[in-house]
């Protein structure tokens, strides 16, 4: 079954279809990870995007029940060089093709993913469509160029109602902007009494839950498209210790008066080096984001830059100078990827304990 990938710049790639045969439109991005395709395809931060995997062979270890980062994938499509028809792994339960069929997700294989990645690196992320080989290219192009990308991705992937994940430890309100299950797992591992709440929760509703700490999750899209989240964070600053990841990091920066901007092609992969500016140590991190905090916008805020990306110098971590709050742009829950930054969850627990004991929280915890 032949399909074509059509980009808004007019580029056309012909390949073999797998998964669903529906037509799909979305923002075409690339991920450089060599493994972890199951976690990538189920990451809610890819909502509305067509994901290109630069590693050439995908699906060779199949799909298993344990490695999902969400119940329902939110990606629009998958692009690979070669898809494995017969996976081999003791945990494998279903092939990538069969899984995509069950979830109505289209994929295309057999195209030059290196060429596609070079186009994205040169021009930036592009809108694209995966469609049947017989569809008219000019008609699809016209539709692509006339159809704006959706801006309500967080609303699509966030939980609709609050729910608990009980524990006997610290009570943490986890705001779901497109939460990866890895974040919840790390909090559960530390016996936290977690309450997961929707993206549009108000500060008043959060305070009514009597939390010891607030976790701002990852999520898709432009942080400026979630003004209600920015307002909630602004009202909660200084009231409860706060830890933000990825989109949560960007929303926190906006709430503190900084600015965010779209990156040319973003950071998506599991081997991004990040430097801690206070210790000089470098961690290898998992990342997935298309926006970044603008460096010059930090100057007139009460924020301190704590981490930077070694590849391009962009901001990877922030800490508030006056209140107990810190954030990182990368994924310390590491799904998929290295676990170098997993300690940040322990430091969030220490920040909560420092606040409860009345210790100077901004200086007592080194993040």
TrEMBL record:
GO terms for biological process: 'de novo' pyrimidine nucleobase biosynthetic process; 'de novo' UMP biosynthetic process; glutamine metabolic process; L-arginine biosynthetic process. L-glutamine binds at residues 45, 219, 221, 247, 250, 288, 290-291. It holds the Pfam family CPSase_sm_chain. This is Carbamoyl phosphate synthase small chain. Small subunit of the glutamine-dependent carbamoyl phosphate synthetase (CPSase). CPSase catalyzes the formation of carbamoyl phosphate from the ammonia moiety of glutamine, carbonate, and phosphate donated by ATP, constituting the first step of 2 biosynthetic pathways, one leading to arginine and/or urea and the other to pyrimidine nucleotides. The small subunit (glutamine amidotransferase) binds and cleaves glutamine to supply the large subunit with the substrate ammonia. InterPro entries: Anth_synth/Amidotransfase, CarbamoylP_synth_ssu, CarbamoylP_synth_ssu_N, CarbP_synth_ssu_N_sf, Class_I_gatase-like, CPSase_GATase1, GATASE. Residues 1-131 form the Carbamoyl-phosphate synthase small subunit N-terminal domain. It comes from Robertmurraya siralis. Residues 1-170 are annotated as: CPSase. Pathway: Amino-acid biosynthesis; L-arginine biosynthesis; carbamoyl phosphate from bicarbonate: step 1/1; Pyrimidine metabolism; UMP biosynthesis via de novo pathway; (S)-dihydroorotate from bicarbonate: step 1/3. It comes from the Bacteria. It is an enzyme of class 6 (ligase). Keywords: Amino-acid biosynthesis, Arginine biosynthesis, ATP-binding, Glutamine amidotransferase, Ligase, Nucleotide-binding, Pyrimidine biosynthesis. The keyword Transport does not apply. CDD domains: GATase1_CPSase. Its EC number is 6.3.5.5.
């Amino acid at each position: 079954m032949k399909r074509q990938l059509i980009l808004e710049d007019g580029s056309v790639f012909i390949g073999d279809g797998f998964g669903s045969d529906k037509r799909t439109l979305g923002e075409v991005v690339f991920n450089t990870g060599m493994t972890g395709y199951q976690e990538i395809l189920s990451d809610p931060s890819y909502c509305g995007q067509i994901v290109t995997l630069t590693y050439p062979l995908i699906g060779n270890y199949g799909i298993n029940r344990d490695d999902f980062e969400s119940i329902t994938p939110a990606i629009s499509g998958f692009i690979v060089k070669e898809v494995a028809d017969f996976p081999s792994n003791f945990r494998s339960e279903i092939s990538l093709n069969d899984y995509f069929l069950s979830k109505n997700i289209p994929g295309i294989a057999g195209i030059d993913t290196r060429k596609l990645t070079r186009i994205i690196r040169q021009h930036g992320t592009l809108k694209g469509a995966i469609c049947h080989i017989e569809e008219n290219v000019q008609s699809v192009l016209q539709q692509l160029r006339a159809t704006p990308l959706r801006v309500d991705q967080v609303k699509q992937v966030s939980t609709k109602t609050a729910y608990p994940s009980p524990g006997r430890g610290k009570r943490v309100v986890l705001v779901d902007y497109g939460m990866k299950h890895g974040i919840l797992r790390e909090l559960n591992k530390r016996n936290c009494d977690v309450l997961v709440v929707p993206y549009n929760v108000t500060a008043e509703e959060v305070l009514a839950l009597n939390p010891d700490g607030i976790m701002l999750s990852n999520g898709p899209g432009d942080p400026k498209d979630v003004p209600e989240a920015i307002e909630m964070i602004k009202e909660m600053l200084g009231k409860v210790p706060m830890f933000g990841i990825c989109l949560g990091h960007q929303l926190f920066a906006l709430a503190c008066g900084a600015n965010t901007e779209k990156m040319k092609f973003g950071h998506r992969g599991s081997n991004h080096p990040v430097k801690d500016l206070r210790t000089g140590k470098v961690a290898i991190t998992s990342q997935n984001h298309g926006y970044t905090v603008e460096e010059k916008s930090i100057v007139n805020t009460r924020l301190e830059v704590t981490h930077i990306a070694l590849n391009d110098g962009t901001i990877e971590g922030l800490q508030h100078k006056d209140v107990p709050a810190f954030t990182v742009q990368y994924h310390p829950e590491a799904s998929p990827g290295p676990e170098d930054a997993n300690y940040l969850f322990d430091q969030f627990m220490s920040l909560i304990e420092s606040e409860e004991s009345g210790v100077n929280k901004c200086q007592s915890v080194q993040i």
